Fold this sequence. Notes:
It is a single chain. The model has no long low-confidence stretch (mean pLDDT 83). Strand 5 (109-113) and strand 6 form a beta hairpin. The chain is α/β, with parallel strands linked by helices and 159 residues long. Helix content is 35%, strand content 18%. The protein is globular, with a radius of gyration of 18 Å. The chain has helices spanning 13-23, 42-58, 77-91, 139-151; strands at 31-34, 62-67, 99-100, 102-103, 109-113, 116-120, 130-131, 133-134. The chain is built from four helices and eight strands.
Amino acid sequence: MRTPRPPAGPSDFIREIVAQHVAEKRYAKIVTRFPPSQRLSPPRHAKSICLNFGIARENGGTCNLRFDDTNPAKEEIEYVDSIITDVRWLIAGWADHCLGFKAKGAHPAAIMSNGQPDFYLGPAAPGSGTEAFFASDYFERLHAHAIELIERGKPTCAT
């Protein structure tokens, strides 16, 4: 008598790309991110949580909680704190070990990745002295990239 196989995990084109990268050992670790937004509906947030935390969980990786704070001066801490609380509740017992924060006040450092200059801000285990990632952590680097493109005569936006 044959032993029944456990059901296969979820599969989609994103997971297939990640699986290919894992097989190629393209990256040292799989790191995804969940970018909560006030504009997204709860079902879209749930789908994104399942995808991003699921891929991190399936590959022994990390999913960084990263806010797209286009205007950091106006970011409301109550909004950030409530999202963190909700995310922790949603992933509890399933993917909470994958949640990535950064050291409080940390900013990306210049590194070489696959022979190319890049910037990296590594995750830290959530706890005191840590906070969620913010898109504004990269504003200085993005500004430098824009200047570089302008100096090279490249357009910085579609006309």
